[in-house]
């Protein structure tokens, strides 16, 4: 099987990390990409490499990231080693910002992107439940959730308003219409 990058996008609180972990559990051939983030270590949600902004800038300038962007006051980077891993045949899942999709499609022409969606009520409940944002920050994130995807973004919508199991099953049907890899 040839390698590919599968982007996962969607607003904060939609359950991107939960869906990604559910997919990896259901399809062991899928692997998660560990991002580099200018966030304090150990805040949960995903396994990431925490760095200071100065180190991030240095590494971006040295070409260590195939993709990087800023969102919510933080910088995110996807390691350039992803290209090698795909060339070796790996199937990789990466949490991307909607804003970086045009660049991601340039770097990875075969990129398949799932746009995880949920109702505003579901998003508000999940954001409040994770306890990382103030009420004002939750309001800002909900406002961002309604913004359209970048023009030309090639995505497939996937609702995550139901159970995680249902969402993962629907994602598997989209990602592997012929046969799920072992």
Automatic annotation (TrEMBL):
Q: Could you tell me which residue ranges the Guanylate kinase-like domain spans?
A: 3-176
An example of a Gene Ontology BP annotation on this entry?
organic phosphonate metabolic process
One Pfam family of this protein, by short name?
Guanylate_kin
SMART domains the record matches: GuKc
Any one GO molecular function term: ATP binding
Q: Which InterPro entries match?
A: GK/Ca_channel_bsu (IPR008145), Guanylate_kin-like_dom (IPR008144), P-loop_NTPase (IPR027417), PhnN (IPR012699)
Instruction: Give the Enzyme Commission number.
Output: 2.7.4.23
Pathway stated in the Swiss-Prot or TrEMBL entry: Metabolic intermediate biosynthesis; 5-phospho-alpha-D-ribose 1-diphosphate biosynthesis; 5-phospho-alpha-D-ribose 1-diphosphate from D-ribose 5-phosphate (route II): step 3/3
The record's keywords, sorted A to Z, are: ATP-binding, Kinase, Nucleotide-binding, Transferase
Catalytic activity annotation: alpha-D-ribose 1,5-bisphosphate + ATP = 5-phospho-alpha-D-ribose 1-diphosphate + ADP
What is one GO cellular-component annotation here?
cytosol
Residues annotated for ATP binding in this entry? 10-17
- Record's PANTHER family? GUANYLATE KINASE-RELATED, RIBOSE 1,5-BISPHOSPHATE PHOSPHOKINASE PHNN
Q: What does this protein do?
A: Catalyzes the phosphorylation of ribose 1,5-bisphosphate to 5-phospho-D-ribosyl alpha-1-diphosphate (PRPP).
Q: Which family does it belong to?
A: Belongs to the ribose 1,5-bisphosphokinase family.
The protein's name is Ribose 1,5-bisphosphate phosphokinase PhnN
Gene name tied to this protein:
phnN
């Amino acid at each position: 099987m040839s390698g590919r990058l599968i982007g996962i996008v969607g607003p904060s609180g939609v359950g991107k990390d939960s869906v990604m972990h559910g997919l990896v559990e259901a399809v062991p051939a899928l692997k998660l990409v560990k991002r580099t983030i200018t966030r304090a270590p150990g805040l949960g949600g995903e396994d990431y490499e925490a760095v200071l902004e100065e180190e991030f800038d240095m590494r971006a300038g040295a070409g260590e990231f195939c993709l990087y962007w800023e969102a919510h006051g933080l910088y995110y980077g996807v390691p350039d080693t992803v290209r090698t891993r795909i060339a070796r045949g790996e199937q990789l899942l990466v949490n991307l910002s909607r804003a970086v999709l045009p660049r991601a499609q340039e770097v990875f022409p075969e990129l398949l992107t799932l746009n995880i969606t949920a109702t505003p009520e579901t998003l508000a409940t999940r954001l409040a439940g994770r306890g990382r944002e103030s009420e004002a920050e939750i309001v800002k994130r909900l406002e961002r959730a309604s913004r359209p995807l970048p023009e030309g973004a090639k995505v497939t919508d996937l609702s995550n308003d139901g159970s995680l199991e249902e969402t993962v099953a629907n994602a598997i049907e989209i990602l592997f219409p012929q046969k799920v890899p072992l």
